[in-house]
Design goal:
This protein is an alpha/beta fold. The chain has a six-stranded mixed β-sheet, covered by helices on one side. The protein has a two-stranded parallel ribbon with strand order 1-9. Strands 5-6 form a two-stranded antiparallel ribbon. The protein is elongated. The relative contact order is 0.23.
Length: about 170
């Protein structure tokens, strides 16, 4: 009888671990709490996939299309250099993301962007980060599998619902 009980417990344990690691399993990120007052910012989760970003907000996940600001390529001595126009006006294509960035920028003293980078977003990551950095928004980033869901447990969602109603967003 004892062997049957142990066998059942082992079966339940193995089954539960297989379910938690199988298809559809997601990641939950727990932001580290620092002891000092200076680094006590709350994270706002942003998933980045190269052509889109998913902002985790109070009212859910909001997917917005994204493409880099104006760029020019220059060929000098056989090498190609890409110039980003950081001082130029925002392109219409990135206007969907502007209300979300401005809401985060207004809280940059108390919040930072925690960016989950999908493999499809690696080639454009630095350009995406520059959208935050030119607004002096602190960023952190971490790679994540292409299709794996991710969420924060103690993170603060942004922006407020009133800002989201003015943008063209769809739930992811």
């Amino acid at each position: 009888i004892l062997m049957c009980v142990l066998g059942c417990l082992l079966l339940v344990t193995v089954s539960m671990s297989a379910i938690s690691m199988g298809v559809g399993a997601g990641e939950v990120w727990i932001p580290a709490q620092s002891g000092g007052e200076k680094n006590n910012k709350s994270p706002v989760l942003v998933e980045f996939g190269g052509n889109f970003a998913v902002f985790h907000t109070d009212s859910g996940r909001h997917r917005v299309d994204w493409r880099p600001s104006a760029q020019r390529s220059v060929n000098i001595g056989g090498s190609t250099y890409v110039l980003n126009d950081d001082k130029g006006k925002e392109e219409e294509a990135t206007s969907e993301i502007l209300p979300l960035l401005k809401a985060l920028e207004s809280r940059k003293d108390t919040h930072y962007a925690l960016i989950a980078v999908r493999p499809s977003g690696f080639p454009r990551l630095q350009q995406f980060l520059s959208e935050f950095r030119r607004r002096d928004i602190t960023v952190g980033y971490e790679p994540i599998d292409q299709m794996r869901p991710v969420s924060l447990t103690d993170g603060v969602s942004l922006p407020p619902t009133s800002v989201l109603k003015t943008s063209n967003d769809s739930t992811h």
